[in-house]
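Sequence, please.
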């Protein structure tokens, strides 16, 4: 039994060696099959793939890379600079940029990823995007025209660089002819209105940091000095590491919309005939005036003006002449007063004047007299309407803060009552209102 032991051990050893060899061969076949599959996947990709070693030499590549770089031989072992000199010449390789590939001659996306190899340092993987098929010329032209007539254009900006792309429609939005300038981020910043630059930059930084959509309205100054409104929307594009590398979006000319909104706001707060502030703006202005008079310890005058004889002129000569008269009265009131004074039209032939900054130490009656006589003297001068001279009279009622009351309603009531008293005393008269207690007695 013991005599056969060496033979048994030898047989077992041979069996184990044969089994190990078989397993090794099977593993090699699986690895070869995996390598074959990986190579097939790489070659099936439409995008070019390049693996660079730490010396910048191409270690591996797929068939698409050879085609895109127009290489007739294998790329393996050759220097990247031989095929993409504009990229290899850079000190550091950015994660994303656009380069002209030999196969197309047009800018294409190039993505660069850094991978770590065990014990051998980092390697770089370059992905060369396949050029997209060009759209038919008529489709391109149709797209350009739609952008132009919609006043909308597309843009993209490589973050932290001066590189900026504009579609054709954007040039006109900044007051340039196409090709007149080369788009750049610095050019864009110089075109934005100085008062809006900080807001636009803050919006860009917030978009880059948060990833939220960028949406800003701002003004641009054209080369001829005119100002126009744009609305810009966009978002960030990130690389494989989640780092923002560029912003892309659209910009639209909203100058016409802004003009319409401004016109609507003006109509809501101004008299359409004379252009003077209306009753709504009068109340808003009075509230601010009372607050200033209270804090500055000054006096404020409120003057009600009603025209005498306007109805007769309107009836005899028509509404067109009446409208000219009202416009002329508005202009005369503005010229008779300081720029800081406020003139409004309540409607019909009624106007209101607010005068601020009057000293409380002055005589109340003296202040009212000086204000009223100045206004009446200006309005009493003949006015040429068409081919006819017309003379118009007026009646004025004056109320003062704080002498006649502390509120808008009290001052308006007292000035209105004073105006009717002046009218009952004859043409071109003024009347200084009484304090509320004495007004009730009268």
């Amino acid at each position: 039994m013991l005599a056969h032991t060496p033979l048994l051990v030898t047989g077992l050893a041979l069996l184990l060696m044969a089994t190990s060899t078989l397993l090794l061969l099977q593993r090699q076949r699986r690895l070869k099959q995996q390598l074959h599959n990986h190579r097939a996947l790489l070659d099936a990709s439409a995008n070019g793939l390049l693996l660079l070693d730490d010396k910048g030499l191409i270690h591996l590549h797929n068939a698409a890379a050879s085609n895109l770089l127009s290489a007739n031989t294998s790329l393996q072992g050759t220097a990247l600079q031989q095929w993409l000199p504009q990229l290899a010449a850079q000190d550091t390789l950015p994660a994303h940029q656009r380069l002209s590939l030999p196969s197309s001659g047009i800018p294409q996306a190039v993505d660069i990823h850094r991978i770590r190899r065990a014990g051998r340092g980092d390697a770089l993987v370059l992905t060369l995007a396949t050029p997209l098929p060009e759209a038919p010329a008529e489709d391109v032209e149709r797209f350009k025209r739609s952008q132009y007539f919609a006043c909308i254009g597309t843009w993209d900006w490589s973050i932290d660089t001066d590189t900026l792309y504009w579609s054709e429609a954007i040039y006109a939005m900044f007051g340039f002819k196409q090709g007149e300038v080369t788009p750049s981020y610095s050019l864009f910043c110089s075109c934005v209105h100085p008062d809006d630059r900080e807001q636009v930059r803050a919006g860009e930084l917030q978009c880059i940091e948060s990833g939220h959509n960028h949406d800003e309205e701002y003004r641009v100054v054209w080369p001829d000095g005119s100002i126009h409104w744009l609305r810009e929307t966009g978002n960030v594009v990130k690389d494989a590491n989640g780092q923002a590398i560029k912003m892309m979006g659209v910009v639209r000319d909203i100058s016409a919309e802004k003009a319409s909104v401004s016109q609507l706001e003006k109509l809501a707060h101004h008299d359409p005939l004379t252009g003077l502030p209306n009753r709504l703006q009068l109340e808003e202005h009075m509230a601010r005036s009372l607050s200033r008079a209270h804090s500055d310890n000054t006096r404020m005058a409120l003057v009600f003006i009603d025209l005498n004889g306007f109805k007769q002129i309107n009836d005899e000569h028509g509404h067109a002449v009446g409208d000219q008269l009202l416009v002329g009265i508005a202009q005369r009131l503005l010229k008779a007063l300081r720029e800081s004074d406020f003139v409004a039209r309540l409607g019909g032939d009624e106007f209101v004047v607010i005068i601020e900054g009057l000293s409380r130490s002055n005589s109340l009656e003296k202040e009212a007299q000086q204000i009223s006589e100045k206004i009446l003297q200006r309005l009493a001068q003949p006015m040429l309407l068409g081919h006819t001279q017309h003379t118009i009279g007026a009646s004025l009622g004056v109320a003062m803060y704080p002498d006649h009351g502390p509120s808008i309603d009290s001052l308006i009531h007292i000035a209105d009552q004073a105006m009717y008293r002046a009218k009952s005393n004859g043409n071109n008269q003024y009347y200084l209102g009484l304090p509320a207690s004495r007004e009730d007695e009268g």
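The mean pLDDT is 79.
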